[in-house]
Amino acid sequence: MDFWRHLKTVQRHRRLVRQHCFRLGLYWQGLTHDLSKFSPVEFWAGVKYFQGDRSPNDAQRRDKGYSASWMHHKGRNRHHFEY
């Protein structure tokens, strides 16, 4: 379990997306991008399966056969084609 490193990774991702969205004038999208990553089902799975160099969803998928955090994430974020 790696709470702080996962939090740092999520925050860095959101910051980079926000910067790029703001350059394009997509302010609301930049501010709200991936907020679901802070929901308990996504965040705690990310902490438990944090690897540092790969998605924690892959590790959860290997462990359980599916990734509950990915299923939650893709259903709540319009930027994924599975939405």
Q: What's the structural blueprint in terms of helices and strands?
A:
Elements: H1 3-23, H2 27-32, H3 40-48, H4 56-64, H5 68-74
Write up this protein.
The structure is a single chain. The chain is an all-alpha fold. It has one domain. It is built from 5 helices and no strands. It has helices at residues 3-23, 27-32, 40-48, 56-64, 68-74. The chain is globular. The N and C termini lie far apart (29 Å). 14% of the residues are buried. The mean pLDDT is 94.
Number of DSSP strands?
0
**Rg from C-alpha positions?**
13 Å
| Order of SSEs | HHHHH
- Described by the principal axes of the CA atoms, the overall outline is globular
Unreliable runs, pLDDT <50, ≥5 residues? none
**How helix-rich are the residues, as a percent range?**
55-70%
Distance between the termini: 29 Å
Strand content: under 5%
How many domains is the backbone divided into? Answer: 1
Round the mean pLDDT to the nearest integer and report it: 94
User: What structural category characterises the helix and strand content?
Assistant: mainly alpha
What is the count of DSSP helices, taking H or I runs of 4+ residues? 5
Q: What can be said about the biggest beta sheet?
A: none
